[in-house]
Specification:
The complex is a heterodimer. Chain A contains 10 helices and no strands. Chain A has helices at residues 18-56, 67-76, 78-112, 114-129, 132-143, 148-171, 175-183, 188-223, 231-240, 244-272. In chain A, α6 (148-171) packs antiparallel against α8, α8 runs antiparallel to α10 (244-272) and α9 packs antiparallel against α10 (244-272). In chain B, the strands form 2 sheets. In chain B, strands 5-6-7-3-8-9 form a 6-stranded mixed beta sheet, sandwiched between helices. A 3-stranded antiparallel beta sheet of chain B has the order 2-1-4. Chain B is globular, with a radius of gyration of 18 Å. By secondary structure, chain B is of the alpha/beta class. Chain B has a domain at 3-80 and 157-252: 3-Layer(aba) Sandwich (Rossmann fold). Chain A binds chain B through residues 1-2, 4, 6, 8-11, 174, 176-177, 179-187, 190, 194-195, 198-199, 201, 273-277, 281, and chain B through 55-57, 76-77, 79, 81-83, 85, 87, 89, 91-95, 102-103, 105-108, 123-126, 128-130, 134-139, 141-142, 171-172, 175, 178-179, 182-183. The complex binds adenosine-5'-diphosphate and magnesium ion.
């Protein structure tokens, strides 16, 4: 077989054409840089428009602060902002880990015990329909005023999307792949580790990317009730004090953290799912 | 001559909401070791079902079957059966090499004496240099080559192929047909090959088993007397044309 010429598909089909290759790479580089620079340019334009609008229309600082004032707060009170970000970050990340671990475990149980899914899934749906702002006070009453209720809120928020996606990912395995494993006399454990888990990873990561942002939201909302520390507490305090530059600066810090969290998950996804067509090579 | 697969009055029924379908009825068949048998028949006549019974994927509702002298389950556990699916069924998260070595990692990972190394098999199917590629980077023909290498890696005595080239373009299919015959000659394994292409069935098989539909039963076992080694050009000889014509006429009555 090997010695036969195969002009269409074989390795030998790659001919050396340095010029075409260079053009291809240049185009790829251009697209990559365009993807990076366009958002930066858009943000700069947005800030400029905002800055000028506040100036021209003479908007009161407590209604909408100029971006310069927000920048000033970010710079001057950086340490205080970071000290408040820390508890929120701990709550969000802990909740993210706990909620997703619980969801992955339960999804695994669902795949092997259909009766468990039939019994528990409706409860999960019901809990999911309760809005975060309503869950928060309930959990504060249940768990006190420390970090625990915030972690619980973040975990509960992460839980549902991961449960749904992971169950699907573990279950929606191609029939031929399972038949192949049967012909190979693979054990149930081998089928799980070598077929179901890798098959579920793309599903899991789309849930984790959602969860990365919502976990932060959960922690912040949790801090709205009776907290003295954290991004959520700072949002409430600055609002009541009409300190809108601080409010905006707090939001910038919270959003930046959220974006970073999302970025870390996306990076992990790119690393782990290099085989996935949609992520390219 | 020793027998690779022996079927005695094999019957398979499927029960669904719409009633019971008899997919196969009283199939009697003996496939000699080392031979190449093609299964030909209209769609839905039970070709895949018969192959699945041999692979121990389906338990027959009636009759007896032995694979390499044992129950199909024993043959499967001993790694004596290789299977190639129509759409290759590669694992997209594994590279070409990792796909080929999968059978060596699961189910005890046993390879039979005389089994070739993964590298050797990739060379045999013309994929040297593609070890680290992922399935989505391969053409349909290359994916089937990987699937064939994977099916052979444990050194099976029986290779079952369910329309493996059915989704490929004709040029690629012709080439793979020739190459498959070389694989067969160099490994000496018994091959049972399902197809709904008359030309493929006649070109590959030492014998063509024609199945009739509803219920699936043996219509005729046609010996192929074309000389070996087979070459694609043989399909223009009067002998081949006559054989294909015969298969077509029988198929029309199936
Ligand atoms: N798992 C199944 N459940 C119900 N009916 C089936 C199943 N598998 C096959 N059949 C039926 O058995 C018959 C033969 O199917 P199959 O062996 O796939 O035919 P072929 O491969 O020749 O096209 C068809 O009528 C098909 O609908
Ligand atoms: Mg079929």
């Amino acid at each position: 077989m090997a010695n036969q010429a195969e002009p269409v598909t074989m390795a030998s089909a790659f001919t050396e054409d340095a010029e075409a290759q260079a053009r291809f790479l240049a185009r790829k580089r251009y697209l990559a840089w365009r993807g990076r620079l366009l958002p930066v340019a858009a943000v700069i334009v947005f800030l400029l428009v905002w800055w000028q609008a506040v100036k021209i229309f003479d908007i009161q600082p407590f209604i909408a602060p100029s971006p310069v004032a927000v920048g000033q707060v970010l710079y001057d009170r950086f340490d205080m902002l970071m000290a408040n970000l820390l508890p929120t970050a701990i709550e969000a990340v802990s909740g993210f880990i706990l909620g997703n671990l619980a969801a992955i475990t339960l999804a695994t149980a669902f795949v092997y015990r259909k009766t468990m899914e039939e019994a528990l899934f409706p409860i999960a749906v019901m809990v999911n329909t309760i809005p975060v702002v309503a869950k928060a006070p309930i959990l504060v009453l249940l768990l006190g005023n420390g970090m625990e209720p915030k972690i619980a809120i973040a975990a509960i928020i992460c839980f549902f999307p991961t449960l749904v996606n992971m169950t699907r990912g573990l279950r929606d395995v191609r029939a031929e792949q399972l038949e192949l494993m049967r012909i190979l006399s693979a054990t149930p454990r081998e089928v799980f580790m070598r077929i179901r888990v890798p098959n579920a990873l793309p599903y899991l990561f789309s849930a984790l990317k959602i969860a990365a942002s919502t976990a932060v939201i959960g922690a912040i909302v949790g801090e709205w009730i009776g907290s003295t520390k954290g991004i959520g507490a700072l949002i409430i305090q600055s609002t009541y004090n009409f300190d809108s530059p601080l409010l905006y600066a707090t939001i910038v810090v919270g959003s930046t953290f959220s974006a970073l969290f999302f970025g870390v998950i996306s990076l992990a996804e790119k690393r782990l799912l290099r085989w996935n067509v949609t992520h390219g090579v | 001559m020793a027998v690779a697969v022996q079927c005695e009055r094999i019957t398979v029924r499927f029960t669904t909401e719409r009633g019971t379908v008899t997919a196969l009825e009283n199939i009697d068949l003996a496939i000699p070791r080392g031979s190449f048998l093609t299964l030909l028949g209209p769609s839905g006549c039970g070709k895949s079902t018969l192959l699945r019974v041999m692979a121990d994927l389906i338990e027959p509702s009636g009759g007896r079957i032995s694979v390499l002298g044992d129950a199909p389950a024993t043959a499967r556990l001993n790694r004596e059966i290789g299977f190639v699916f129509q759409d290759a069924a590669l694992l997209p998260w594994r590279t070409v090499l990792e796909n080929v070595t999968l059978p060596l990692e699961v189910g005890g990972g046993k390879a039979l004496p005389g089994a070739r190394s993964p590298q050797d098999l990739l060379a045999l199917v013309g994929l040297t240099g593609w070890e680290q590629a992922y399935p989505h980077e391969l053409s349909g023909g290359m994916r089937q080559r990987v699937a064939i290498a994977r099916a052979l890696v444990s050194g099976p005595r029986l290779l079952l192929m369910d329309e493996p080239f059915g989704a490929l373009d004709e040029i690629t299919r012709d080439r793979l047909n020739e190459e498959l015959l070389q694989v067969w000659e160099s490994t000496g394994t018994t091959i049972v090959f399902v197809t709904h292409s008359i030309y493929e069935a006649a070109f590959l098989g030492q014998k063509v088993l024609l199945l009739a539909a509803r219920p699936g039963r043996v219509r005729e076992l046609v010996p192929v007397t074309l000389p070996t080694p087979r070459r694609l050009a043989m399909r223009e000889t009067p002998e081949f044309v006559a054989l294909a014509g015969h298969l077509r006429r029988v198929l029309e009555t199936c």
